[in-house]
């Protein structure tokens, strides 16, 4: 199936079924990503406490784990919820924010991936390299590696782990080790707004809650999210007015816009 | 007094006295509801830690408890602050977000209502039914019950408990068991923005801090909040641009707008 | 150097070096202040957990401590990160939100200033007076003192402690005890938006990460932030639309705008 069609079919499925997406995520982006979830057509729930996070999973079409502002309690809760999701065959999407920057983040990400079966990981190059045990040049939650530098490592990592991996930047790469697509949607202003990476992961989790094939879900989500970013960039006057426009653009996405704007290349 | 007049008189009282409204609330909506409080004309304070939450209550005109992202520490803090509010005769407003969805939420809501004298509860039908010990068809923090299905249960619950109860949806119902009003303000786009229910509870708490009669406070608040939602819906282009417009509309509310737009029916 | 030049040179330095600013801050303003940081040209990181907060400091050009929604765990983390910053000679900026309102806040602020060498403190008059051990008439996180009432106390406090102190209100005062400047930029609508004080502190931390002299950094930051507030006030329709406009205005600031709009007076 053509990537643009994957994106628009997936969006239609989200809007038909309104799946719930359970986020255990960082405090910086909770409001923003809850609104992204709603604008995609899915229903957000955020239940961080371990005494309910696994129970809440049963209502969810996907579980998103984001380690942006972590502590041990939250990681324990993520693992408990992740194990429940595995039991129920609900896809788990990991955003390893800042992996590689501090030991706590790297170790927590490693603990999650060793105890929970992850379906999809989305991160910037440095974060993904950190998961691969490579030394990414990570500075805090940023990264200075370019995506093309790490294509081979990412392919091998996907094959070895069974994850679908999305490495995002000015070009996004999605691979499951056997398939790989490059996505050239999006806009530079997105890097000037906090949480756009986290929000891209939310888009992926919404798709994963409605689309069986995780590679297709991830590809479709990043095309849609990137296109919404472009549409918003055309209407805003700066990074502040970009945010409400991005949410409107997500809500306004349709087959025609996606078909016209999707810019992808099959790399594998 | 006519509901529209209750709404505009209450708003005038808030803007004259700028009461402080102490929120112990969920992490998703903190920023949004703090801004709602300011736009209503009141002053927000959010002091979640038990070592100061009761002390902070003394400055407040109302205490709002919202269990949207709860843990045991936070519930303990809510109860300590609630008891202090009861001592000082400060109204306590409860938003039982997701009660009925998980045991933790249902049990925490029940613990709060058994240890604290609550003045007002606002929730969707499923949450209110869960407090009544009825099996609401609750899915996460959503609900699929309609409001008219639960009018009798809600009336009895109000009489039995002494609470003013607001069940919100496309029509809002407010009752103290002897009086009941239906409010037909608001706009469907509000359900596509995270935290509009929580924000409605904030509006109620602002009114409760300035208006003696809790039934009138709740009625007036939901009329005002619904009208602001309508005004914002006319100016926005989608759920993203709706949020800043809603805050502007709250700040712009006046007697004329309220008088012209209030749509209520006395049900009891 | 003229204050306007200090402001525009500082901004140029931030945009050239993109320093990371590590925030340990309150949950209400995390998203807003992360976006303020990005719009200034710096890079935000928020790592509240004590197991990583000191480690994250090494990547930072400044450390911001804000006690708006504190608990003991968070204060411990602030102190650990602050000590690490002291070791590495990274400036520490304190926002003592609500000091004077509750014992927990006053005591926590006092614990921080006794265990960490603070470079800059920004607060409203009541908060600064509370740090000076004076009885400010503090009501929650607000204050009813005017700035000119406390100039002498603030000067002495700055001399005694070695801090640069910024007392903000309709006029901002910045002093290190030997120098003092008054800044008349800003707009009344800023007091109707949650977290504008916290965001001003973020602006100060961004400048402190790029400008050696802390008095100049603080002065430059508050000029820039106030001017952005004025520009945004001219474009918005109310406190809701003000927020995205403020972020755009921060991103749009340049030497010309700053030179034209800066309104300062040398007081000492």
Label the overall shape of chain A.
globular
Measured distance between first and last alpha carbons of chain A: 14 Å
Number of domains of chain A: 1
What is the helix fraction of residues of chain A, given as a range? 40-55%
Instruction: Please state roughly what percent of the residues of chain A sit in beta strands, choosing from under 5%, 5-15%, 15-25%, 25-35%, 35-45% or over 45%.
Output: 15-25%
Q: Oligomeric status of the shown chains?
A: homotrimer
Largest chain interface and its two residue counts? A-B, 33 and 33 residues
Number of helices of chain A: 11
Roughly how many Å is the radius of gyration of chain A? Answer: 17 Å
Overall pLDDT confidence of chain A:
94
What pattern of helices and strands is seen along the backbone of chain A? HEHEHEHEHEHEEHEEEHHHHE
CATH topology of chain A: UDP-N-acetylmuramoyl-L-alanine:D-glutamate ligase
Please list the strands of the largest sheet of chain A in the order they lie side by side: 2-1-3-4-5-8-9-10-11
How would you portray this structure in words?
Three copies of one chain form a homotrimer. Chain A is of the alpha/beta class. Chain A has one domain: 3-Layer(aba) Sandwich (UDP-N-acetylmuramoyl-L-alanine:D-glutamate ligase), CATH 3.40.1190.20. Chain A has eleven helices and eleven strands. Chain A has helices at 3-17, 30-40, 53-57, 72-87, 103-115, 125-131, 151-161, 196-208, 214-235, 239-252, 255-261, and strands at 20-24, 43-46, 60-66, 92-95, 120-123, 138-139, 142-143, 164-167, 172-175, 180-183, 264-266. In chain A, the strands form two sheets. Chain A has a nine-stranded mixed sheet with strand order 2-1-3-4-5-8-9-10-11, sandwiched between helices. Chain A has a two-stranded antiparallel sheet with strand order 6-7. In chain A, helix 5 links the parallel strand 4 (92-95) and strand 5. The two termini of chain A are 14 Å apart. Residues 136-144 of chain A have low confidence and may be disordered. Chains A and B meet through helix 2, strand 2 and helix 10 of A and helix 5 and helix 10 of B.
